[in-house]
Amino acid sequence: MQVLFFWIFSVLGIGCAAMMVIKKNPIHSALFLVVTILSLAGLYLLLGAEFLAAIQVIVYAGAIMVLFLFVIMVVRPKEESLWGGAGWIGVVGLMLVVIIFMWFVKAIGLTSLPKASKLGLKALNTASLGKQLFSHYIVPFEAISILLLVALIGVVVLGRRGK
Q1: What are phi and psi of 25, to 5 degrees?
Q2: Is the pLDDT assigned to residue 76 strictly greater than 60?
Q3: What are the boundaries of each domain within the chain?
Q4: Contact between residue 37 and residue 60 where contact means Cβ atoms under 8 Å apart
Q5: Which helix (H) or strand (E) holds 14?
Q6: How far apart are alpha carbons 94 and 11 in whole angstroms?
Q7: pLDDT at position 146, please?
């Protein structure tokens, strides 16, 4: 059952990533990127990394995609066709990557996916990650929060200058 979900999430992710590049409309491309991000979160769940899956959905599919859509709506880029010479090279390259990936999976005989604990990764569940983050890594955590606060203040100042 786990291998079935792996293939579903993998094919969905690769297909939506290809459609993200191929589509002319930037809004459609952004929506295909959301589905690609959600399929990656599904792969994280299969590996037993629940926290990474949640962060993937909340941060990337939620916050970052809202920012992307806001920028697309404000900038309104011209629609350009990707089906010139370089577009076909990209499609052929994507097909080669998919073929190589399928050959690799068949060559190693993938029958089940390893759990994160078997890979030697100890801090993938939320409780152990929280303990590590707020004990051993509290100084870098606070430094990043100050850096984000300074960046937010900078964005507000730059935004007010434009008015």
Answers
A1: -80, 125
A2: yes
A3: 2-121, 125-163
A4: yes
A5: helix 2-22
A6: 13
A7: 83
Counting other chains too, the contacts that 112-115 makes at CB distance below 8 Å and 24 or more residues apart are: 112/2, 112/3, 113/2, 113/3, 113/6, 113/46, 113/47, 114/47, 115/47, 115/48
- Confidence class for position 152, pLDDT limits 50, 70, 90: confident
Residues 134-154, mean pLDDT to the nearest whole number: 79
- ∠ CA 99-95-110, nearest 5°, is 30
3-state secondary structure 90-137: HHHHHHHHHHHHHHHHHHHCCCCCCCCCCCCCCCCCHHHHHHHHCCCC
Between the CA of residue 99 and those of 6, 95, 105, what are the distances in Å?
A: 17, 6, 10
Count other C-beta atoms under 10 Å from residue 26's C-beta. 20
Sign of CA dihedral 80, 81, 87, 90: positive
> Angle 26-19-52 (CA atoms, 0-180°, nearest 5)?
90
Three-state DSSP state, 49: coil
Fold type of domain 2-121? Four Helix Bundle (Hemerythrin (Met), subunit A) (1.20.120)
- Position 67, amino acid: L
Q: What is the pLDDT of residue 38?
A: 92
